[in-house]
Design a protein that fits this description.
heterodimer; A: 266 residues; alpha/beta; TIM Barrel; globular; B: 408 residues; Rossmann fold; 2 domains; 6-stranded mixed sheet; 4-stranded parallel sheet; 15 helices; 42% helix
């Protein structure tokens, strides 16, 4: 069976547009609300990233920390997260979903058990923020065996040599971190420079789907639409925070927001 | 799992930077891979560079004021009866604690790396105070991340940092203590690693920080080794080295040179308040291995892997994890670990300050309590040495509040 992530990129390429990838945190602010949000935004997004929250994140900025904190305060557990994925997949069986988080949760659950649960609930890919290459080689192999895409990360500090090795061992999608920043930082590098780096990566292997993330908002997204895919995360988390404050329907607000994001890149 | 003889403990890791195949490593975001690789290479070069070692020794002597005194606690010994109790008075080092060694070395490295900014975390405020001092000395701009709760309870050190011109960033996420300060500092470094050097305040974090810190604090045991030989003519067969452990940097420095001797190592963790289930003693209480701040270690956490809350009267020990080096020492049975309650640490502070010329801060007071507990059970031919690695002055407010008065 072909990777749903690969199919999503293929479809986008056919339509000559960049793939829109969203990130929200599972359980933010409740289990049912985060499922409603996923269902709503999946109409406009091509791939969904779902964060499994950790209370000591070393690479997340304030917005995602806030979302994670809300979800954990409401008692979200890994099993609940797999249930959210399962329920989502009942109505959206072909929409690729990537789980993203920190390694300790996988480590505590046991790599094999974690992957079994991913498979059973329909997870298509995994991003593990603090399991870099080559330490992730073994785990990435295990993912592949289960037909789950392990998504490697590249950053502006990644050397050329290292890039080549990582790309060689990568699966269907690679995540390029746009700048030196935690998630949700203000874009401090020009889109031109980011695309230059992006093209450098593309030249190593044209077939790989490279997405750009960090600092992407409704204001910056259009300037990067030449990429295979673009990830918007912190801005969605921030919007959830704001709509909770105003007691608005978060799923509706996010629905509209992701719709507008998509309009900017087609 | 075994410790090898005559190889520095910090170098006994595998190709993944893991000790005993289980502890440590580099669980870090991709962005930090290169800065950490660069720092690793630079440090490996510098520690072999005679000129750099000379520079280090020069500043250790002229700036930190090594060697720190090694004294016998005559009054405490006769008060308790039993083992002979000594103290290595590391609190006599410039700034008043062992954190100055690591801070000085990091500033020297930052200079070599051509960095103009340095950032660090702090719990008790010592690591921050020393880093701000050393940064000022070496002309680096300094930023310190400190939990909002710790800022309140360690006022004297906060004032010192400000006086040294450091910017203090209060961390208001999570428990607002050391664990969050380290996270926030690492996040800051992720965003600024091109211009800024990071100093991790203890033997925790990605492998290179563990190495630099333990290599720096090893000065304590380098001089103690000589002092012990001078005092006893040899390294005594029955000698116990007691040290409090939070992250574990002072204990690593205190024990390092004695690794291949018969000296017994006892690490004392923070047991928290007697009435509370919370503590900061992952080794004593059998916490499971998990990943915290880039390294695998025994860490207080729940079943799912969320890092657990801790409680300790001593901000410097109030940390859910513990150095991978101590995990390694525990599992190889080279060291043993126990914990002491808040209330008992206070008692030890009071007794030592009353009887002796030194006044340990709440961190080493944990170790002193263990000495007080052990000494009467031992023969007078046995030796106990406690690392008095901090001065009580910074804890004046807490002590006054808990005991009604402060003596020093």
């Amino acid at each position: 069976m072909k990777s749903k992530i690969a199919i999503a990129f293929k479809n986008c390429k056919k339509e000559k547009r960049t793939a829109l990838i969203t990130y929200t945190v599972a359980g933010d602010n409740t289990k049912s609300n985060s499922l409603k949000i996923l269902n709503a935004i999946s109409k406009h997004a091509d791939i969904l990233e779902l964060g499994f929250p950790h209370n000591t994140p070393i690479a997340d900025g304030g917005q995602i920390q806030g979302s994670s904190h809300r979800a954990l305060r409401n008692g979200i557990k890994l099993n609940d997260i797999f249930n959210i994925v399962k329920k989502f997949k009942v109505y959206n069986p072909n929409k690729p979903l990537i789980m993203m988080g920190y390694f300790n949760l996988i480590y505590q659950s046991g790599e094999n058990k974690f992957l079994k649960n991913c498979k059973a609930s329909g997870v298509d890919g995994l991003i593990v923020v603090d399991l870099p290459y080559p330490e992730n080689k073994n785990f990435a192999k295990k993912c592949k065996k289960k037909s789950i895409d392990f998504i490697q990360l590249l950053s502006p500090t990644t050397s050329n040599d290292r890039m080549k090795k990582i790309i060689k061992d990568s699966h269907n999608m690679i995540y390029y971190i746009s700048m030196l920043s935690t998630t949700g930082g203000k874009l401090k590098v020009s889109p031109k420079k980011i695309l230059q780096n992006y093209n450098k990566i593309k030249r190593i292997n044209r077939k790989k789907n490279i997405v750009i993330g960090f600092g992407i908002t409704n204001k910056t997204i259009a300037s990067l639409k030449k990429a295979d895919g673009l990830v918007v995360g912190s801005q969605l988390c921030k919007t959830i925070t704001n709509s909770l404050k105003k007691r608005l329907n978060t799923a509706k607000v996010l629905d509209k927001m992701v719709y507008n994001l998509r309009k900017k890149i087609i | 799992m075994k410790i090898k003889k005559s190889i520095p403990l910090i170098d006994q890791h595998d190709k993944n930077f893991m000790y005993g195949g289980k502890f440590g490593g580099n669980f870090i975001p991709e962005t930090l891979k290169k800065p950490i690789d660069d720092l690793t290479k630079l440090f490996e070069k510098l520690r072999k560079d005679k000129k750099f070692l000379k520079e280090r020794d020069y500043y250790f002597k002229s700036y930190i004021g090594v060697p720190t005194p090694f004294i016998k606690l005559e009054n405490l010994t006769s008060h308790l009866g039993g083992a002979q109790i000594y103290a290595k008075v590391v609190s006599e080092a410039n700034g008043g604690a062992h954190k100055i060694y690591n801070a000085t070395v990091h500033c020297l490295i930052a200079k070599k790396a051509g960095k103009k900014f340095i950032v660090g975390d702090t719990g008790a405020g010592y690591a921050g105070k020393m880093l701000s001092m050393a940064a000022k000395k070496f002309g680096l701009k300094c930023k310190i991340f400190m939990g909002a709760k710790d800022i309140k309870r360690q006022r004297p050190n906060v004032q010192a940092m400000k006086k040294n011109g450091a910017i203090i960033v209060p961390v208001t996420t999570g428990s607002q203590t050391l664990v969050d300060a380290v996270s926030e500092c690492m996040r800051y470094w992720v965003s600024n690693c091109d211009t800024t050097h990071m100093c991790v305040g203890s033997t925790v974090g990605p492998n290179i920080f563990i190495k630099i810190c333990a290599w720096s604090t090893a000065q304590i045991s380098r001089e103690l080794f000589k002092q012990v030989k001078e005092e006893f003519g040899e390294i005594p067969k029955k000698m116990k080295l007691l040290n409090c452990v939070g992250g574990g940097s002072s204990a690593m420095g205190f024990w390092n040179e004695f690794m291949d001797t018969d000296a017994e190592f006892i690490g004392i963790e923070a047991g928290g308040p007697k009435s509370s289930k919370l503590h900061a003693a992952p080794l004593t209480n059998g916490s499971k291995i998990g990943i915290l701040h880039g390294a695998a270690q025994y860490v207080i956490q729940d079943k799912e892997g969320q890092i657990g809350s801790t409680d300790s009267i001593s901000a410097g020990l109030d940390y859910p994890g513990i150095s991978p080096l101590h995990c390694f020492l525990k599992d190889t049975h080279r060291a043993r670990y126990t914990s002491v309650y808040d209330e008992d640490a206070l008692k030890a502070y009071q007794l030592v300050s009353k009887l002796e010329n030194i006044s340990p801060s709440l961190e080493p007071s944990h170790a002193f309590y263990e000495a007080i507990r052990l000494a009467p059970k031992l023969k007078s031919s046995e030796i106990i040495i406690v690392n008095s690695c901090g001065d009580s002055l910074k804890d004046k407010d807490i002590i006054k509040q808990k005991l009604g008065s402060y003596i020093r």
